[in-house]
Design goal:
256 residues; BirA Bifunctional Protein, domain 2; SH3 type barrels; five-stranded antiparallel β-sheet; globular
């Protein structure tokens, strides 16, 4: 299955206006394909979906287990906002994933967001988001690719942090249709109203807010209290001496 395009796609899958689908049975990585399409001039709203990846990856070059039954999709975007604001799209993407999974997750389960871009189901990672971009153009951003993986049918066991999957009834096709609609909605709101509304909704479900967290940076590991988000999405951490530190990139670990 390759090259399906248009608002109406494979198996009756409907995408929002302005989105077009490139579907594959198997591919190296949806993000790699979206990058290739981006450099070739593919338009904003190009969606790359694969039933299986042979070289899927997550943040910091980690591999992403990519067996059939889960969702692997990348969205090629060309935002009109400056490159300095592009990282906020990771929060919009997490909100889109969370609102999508609200329609499919088991009754009684809980869903939360973990900084910067993980979605947790009952405290375990159910989804990951990877942003990649290239500079250029009048805004300083030529394109941005949002890669999203969601554990629907199964999850890996041999990982550093607990993982989970959604379970019965959540097919990749059904989840992708809702996800694209929710992402399109949040992108439109962000373009119009800025980051504030998304920040507020994200914080309402923030994992670990107000409690102790460990943040692993490139060259150090620090501990403190998760005190919220800065206006640009940075993590606000209160250290033991009472000082405040803004974290722009890192891995957050919650207490076991």
């Amino acid at each position: 299955m390759a090259g399906a395009e248009g608002a109406s796609a494979t198996g009756g899958l409907m995408l929002p206006p302005g989105f077009s689908l490139r579907a594959h049975d198997e591919i190296d990585s949806t993000n790699e394909e979206a990058r290739r399409l981006a450099t070739g001039g593919a338009p904003h709203g190009t969606v790359v979906w694969a039933r299986r990846q042979t070289a899927g990856r997550g943040r910091r070059g980690r591999s992403w287990v990519s067996e059939p039954g889960n969702l692997f999709v990348s969205f090629l975007l060309r935002p009109s906002k400056p490159a300095s604001e592009a990282a906020q799209i990771s929060f919009l993407s997490a909100l889109a994933v969370g609102e999508t999974l609200d329609r499919f997750r088991p009754a009684g389960s809980t869903l939360a967001y973990k900084w910067p871009n993980d979605v947790l189901l009952d405290g375990a990672k159910v989804s990951g988001i990877l942003l990649e971009s290239a500079g250029g153009g009048p805004t300083g951003l030529a394109w941005l690719v949002v890669g999203i993986g969601i554990n629907l049918a199964h999850h890996p066991d041999d990982v550093e942090r607990p993982a989970a999957h959604v379970g019965a009834g959540a097919t990749p096709e059904a989840v992708l249709a809702v996800l694209a609609e929710r992402l399109a909605s949040w992108l439109a709101r962000w373009e119009c109203d800025g980051f504030g509304p998304a920040r507020d909704v994200w914080l309402a479900r923030a994992a670990g807010l107000g409690g102790p967290v460990t943040v692993r940076l490139a060259n150090e590991t620090i501990e403190g209290t998760f005190d919220g988000l800065g206006p640009d999405g940075t993590l606000s951490l209160i250290l033991a001496d009472g000082s405040r530190r803004a974290i722009t990139a890192g891995d957050v670990f919650l207490p076991a």
